[in-house]
Write a structure and sequence with these properties.
One of its GO terms (cellular component) is cytoplasm. By secondary structure, this protein is an all-beta fold. The protein is built from two helices and 85 strands. The strands form 34 sheets. It has a five-stranded antiparallel β-sheet, with no helix packed on it. It has a four-stranded antiparallel β-sheet with strand order 1-2-3-6, with no helix packed on it. A four-stranded antiparallel β-sheet has the order 7-8-9-10, with no helix packed on it.
């Protein structure tokens, strides 16, 4: 390998010792972009200048020397003698690029392309086939802006064609289209020049955006969005990865064809006669493998029309490349280069011109199908250390390889020799001194920390804000200056000592604008009765009870032994008073002191509340300060405490531990364990303490527990035996007048008493009683009771009563089951049937009458009335007659006369047939006239009339109205 040095330690370095950012390699020349200390980019070119490909006029004295017999037109190109050899890089000055800096360079066969920072594209060199994208104006024309009308993002250069990817996604192509390598149909299959850039239709890639381009010898490859890969152009060796035109010398694949559809394509590189493709499934190669450039020993020396698998993570863990996946690909005419993510470089294919950096078979035609690693020290000079250098990039040309090797720059926190910040001749990087830092690799100097920051140690990669309470007033401080004592700051990163703020001193406070939770000046003194113990107080605390203070106090003064204050916040000695003694309590622990109740105490003087002894402990007496074991339940001892406790005496109890024995009150008695007094049960009583509970005597009650006497039964109640808890009410028909009755007396006939009554009551008229009862029942039908206190009811002399409870003989009536009926749908003025049936309940003597009242009704001429007996035949007991029967003078009654004296209780039916019956008056029945009635003048019957309730309805109707009457009983 030849060292193209540009390191500061190599005084013979070229390219002005600037950092090489990119390299482009053609067949016989190369170009590079470097970056100087100021960040300015510069373009360089070196090698053959036979066609002006270095941006200078073409070298003179060229002689006919066939070096490329595979040119599109079959004409041998010429190589210049002597003068075209240019080993020293010549700068392509910005003046040749419209005053702009170069951003990218690309090289084809005798052509160079430069993209500027603004996206302008310049081209120069060989233009026989229009591969410069413009008309040629002579050999060695200076660089010319193509003026494609849009910013250029990338360029790919083949032998005789070029692809241009614009920032708006447009893909342009120009130059030879002999094999369809331009991706358009114009001149496809001919050697004609295409000097004007042609736009490749987006439809050729399924409408997907073009993301990257690569140009081989005479074929093209495009990587589109969604990781789709398309290939077009020359396919003699299968370099497109499709069978179309495979091994066809004149075949042209001018329509882009998609390849590798089964996986996502990540990167692609196109060589002279082969193509490498990195996908999500692994690394593949297609095309010529004559020197092993596809890394496939099986097809050694042959070409392949479809993609050949090389290696992957899944198959071997990328064993062919040292276990690291590929990161970048480069291809020459007949060799390949793979850079891995681990920084390794692997080469395979032709080493005829030493392009694999392998001295063992350089210059031979050997087949090198197994990737060989080339280390950085195999490329560098003597004394190389793999830790000092790394491979930064590789570019493959026709039969050569350029590798960018960088010496590892000084790491962050260190600095080296300008301008690249790499170790000096001694190989050592200097650490950034305290107060300075370095954030990037390759710094030639360190940066001072800004105000308010510091870096305490050497080799710092950043500066730290000064902590609260410190500051840095100058740049580059190794440590921050601390604030004076008893001060604070609002925050970190102070750059000014005036940010140190004094805290309020003891006894002072600041309640506005606190800093970090502390009070700072200006401060106010604490008021009397309060204090601030520490500096920086935001508020003062009230002096605790038993202390006092004046204004501005840092602490409070105590009142003294056995003295205290009534409350916190006292302002002077005069607020101190004597405390309640031990065993006493009082308001505020000082006022109205009183002894603690038995079973509680105070642990010292000055308590406002007593503390319970707890557990089975108690005190001997109120105000005692000593808690002792209490006597158990039902026991007694001196002061109710041990150790000499004995059971309570007869009739005494002790219900609490440590209590004294007490007598049970009247109405109660001690429990068996003498721990509680139990009340006498209901029905018993105890008139005095110490005697057993006794049963209440007959005629008394004790309804509640704990009775001391029994109460007499009230009127209406009784108690027949002893031990009654509640007197029972007298049953129905029985009474008691009170005074402790032991039994109830029964009510005599004609009187009644509901249960629990104190006296019997007299039955009212219409009711009776024959013995003890809760109420007097009403007289049954056909009877009556005219006087109060009846013991029985009198029978009706004739007839019956209409309801129960009759109180007078006049309530006995002589007709039953009276019924009247009319023709259905009778109309006013039309004849209607009238049926009346009844049963007389009295004796009707011959000649006596039953009168049927029919007010305002009439019979038409020839009308008749029929009387029927109970058997439906003509009645023999009665006959009927009537008067005033003319149409103009309506009759108002029918008389039924008894024929003999045996007519009592005979059923009678009165029938007026419809054919000669009653006509209803057109004006209807007046509201103020009665309906049908029954009456009699029999001596044995009642004198009052009996109305028939279902007689003609009251109301009015016109001649068209219809009247429908229903029958009913009385």
């Amino acid at each position: 390998a030849l060292l193209f040095a540009n390191d500061v330690a190599n005084k013979g370095g070229k390219l002005d010792n600037e950092v090489v950012k990119a390299v482009a390699v053609g067949s016989t020349h190369a170009a590079a972009v470097t970056e100087g200390p100021s960040g300015a980019l510069r373009a360089w070119a070196f090698g053959s200048n036979e066609k002006g490909e270095l941006g200078e006029p073409a070298s003179a004295g060229a002689q006919a020397l066939c070096v490329e017999p595979d040119s599109p037109d079959g004409v041998c190109s010429t190589a210049a003698a002597g003068a075209s050899f240019n080993p020293t890089p010549a700068e392509i000055a910005p003046a040749k690029l419209g005053g702009e800096e170069a951003a990218q360079v690309r090289a084809g066969r005798y052509t160079t392309y430069v993209v500027t920072g603004t996206g302008a594209l310049y081209s120069f060199g060989y233009n026989a086939y229009g591969q410069l994208g413009r008309p040629s104006q002579g050999a060695g024309d200076p660089p010319v802006d193509l003026g494609v009308g849009r910013a250029v993002r990338d360029v790919a250069a083949g032998w005789y064609h070029a692809l241009v990817l614009c920032t708006d996604g447009t893909l342009l192509s120009f130059g030879s289209n002999l094999y369809g390598q331009l991706g358009v149909g114009a001149n496809a299959g001919t050697a004609a020049a295409n000097q004007v850039p042609l736009a490749v239709p987006a439809s050729s890639f399924g409408g997907r955006a073009v993301q990257a381009v690569a140009a081989g010898g005479q074929h093209s490859v495009v990587l589109a969005s969604e990781s789709h890969l398309y290939a077009f152009g020359y396919n003699l060796k299968g370099q497109l990865g499709v069978v179309e035109q495979y091994e066809a010398f004149a075949g042209a694949v001018s329509v882009p064809a998609r390849v590798l559809v089964q996986s996502d394509v990540l990167a692609v590189a196109a060589g002279g006669w082969h193509t490498l493709v990195l996908t999500s499934a692994g690394l593949f190669g297609t095309g010529s493998n004559i020197y092993g450039q596809l890394a496939d020993p099986i097809i050694a020396g042959n070409s392949k029309s479809s993609l050949s698998f090389i290696d992957s993570e899944a198959s071997s863990g990328w064993a062919l490349f040292g276990g690291s996946p590929p990161a970048a690909l480069a291809t020459g005419d007949q060799h390949s280069v793979v850079l891995t993510e681990a920084g390794g470089m692997w080469v395979f294919g032709s080493n005829r011109y030493g392009q694999l950096a392998r001295p063992d078979n350089a210059g031979s035609w050997d087949f090198n199908a197994v990737p060989l690693q080339v280390t950085v020290c195999e490329l560098e000079a003597v004394g190389c250390s793999a830790t000092d250098y790394r491979i930064a990039g590789a570019t493959a040309g026709g039969s050569n390889t350029f590798v960018r090797v960088e010496r590892n720059p000084c790491p962050p926190g260190f600095f080296g020799v300008p301008p690249f910040g790499r170790p000096g001749p001694d190989g050592v990087c200097a650490p950034c001194p305290p107060g300075q830092f370095g954030t990037e690799w390759g710094q030639s100097s360190c940066t001072k920390c800004a105000l308010g920051k510091h870096a305490t140690g050497p080799n710092a990669t950043s500066c730290t804000d000064c902590a609260r309470g410190t500051y840095a007033e100058v740049r580059g401080q190794g440590k921050c200056t601390p604030c004076p004592g008893n001060t604070t700051m609002r925050g970190n990163g102070s750059s000014d000592g005036t940010d140190c703020l004094s805290l309020c001193r003891e006894g002072y406070y600041a309640d506005t604008d606190p800093v970090n939770g502390l009070g700072v000046e200006p401060c106010l003194p604490c008021s009397a009765g309060s204090f601030a113990l520490l500096r920086g107080a935001l508020a003062c605390e009230a002096c605790p009870k038993g202390t006092y203070s004046g204004s501005g106090a840092g602490s409070c003064s105590p009142c003294g032994q056995n003295r205290s204050t009534r409350a916190a916040g006292s302002v002077g000695q005069e607020d101190c008073v004597d405390m309640c003694r031990e065993g006493e309590f009082g308001a505020f622990g000082v006022d109205d002191c009183a002894p603690c109740e038995r079973g509680s105490y105070t642990p010292g003087p000055g308590f406002s509340l007593c503390v319970p002894c707890g557990g089975n402990l108690t005190t001997r007496f109120p105000g005692d300060t000593l808690c002792l074991p209490a006597c158990g339940l039902g026991e007694v001892g001196m002061f109710g405490v041990g150790p000499d406790c004995v059971p309570c005496g007869e009739g005494e109890v002790a219900g609490q531990e440590g209590s004294l024995c007490q007598n049970c009150s009247a109405g109660s008695f001690p429990s068996s364990d003498r721990t509680e007094c139990l009340p006498c049960i209901p029905g018993t009583y105890q008139p005095a303490p110490g005697v057993p509970c006794a049963e209440c005597p007959a005629g008394t009650e004790a309804p509640f527990p704990g009775a001391t006497a029994c109460a007499e039964c009230l009127a209406g109640t009784y108690a027949s035996g002893e031990g009654t808890d509640a007197c029972a009410p007298c049953p129905d028909g029985f009474v008691s007048s009170g005074g402790g009755a032991t039994a109830c007396g029964d009510c005599p006939p004609g009187r009644y008493a509901p249960g629990g009554s104190s006296a019997c009551r007299e039955c009212i008229p219409g009711t009776f009683s024959a013995g003890p009862t809760a109420e007097c029942p009403p007289c049954p039908l056909s009877t009556y009771a005219p006087l109060p206190g009846a013991t029985s009811c009198q029978d009706c002399p004739l007839g019956t009563t209409l309801a129960l409870g009759a109180a007078h003989v006049s309530q006995c009536v002589g007709f039953l089951s009276a019924y009247v009926g009319w023709s259905e749908g009778a109309q006013a003025g039309a004849a209607t049937r009238v049926d009346l049936s009844f049963s007389p309940q009295m004796v009707i003597l011959p000649g006596e009458h039953i009168v049927v009242g029919l007010p305002l009704f009439f019979l038409p001429a020839g009308g008749r009335v029929e009387l029927l007996g109970g058997d439906g035949a003509a009645s023999t007991a009665f006959e009927a007659y009537f008067a005033n029967a003319s149409l103009d003078t309506p009759f108002n009654h029918i008389r039924i006369v008894a024929r003999d004296g045996n007519a009592a209780q005979a059923s009678v039916s009165l029938s007026v047939p419809a054919a000669a019956g009653v006509r209803l008056p057109a004006q209807g029945t007046p509201r103020d006239n009665p309906g049908l009635t029954l009456s009699t003048d029999a001596r044995s019957g009642p004198v009052n009339e009996l109305p028939i309730n279902n007689s003609a309805p009251v109301g009015s109707f016109d001649g068209t109205a219809r009247l429908s009457l229903s029958g009913g009983g009385l």
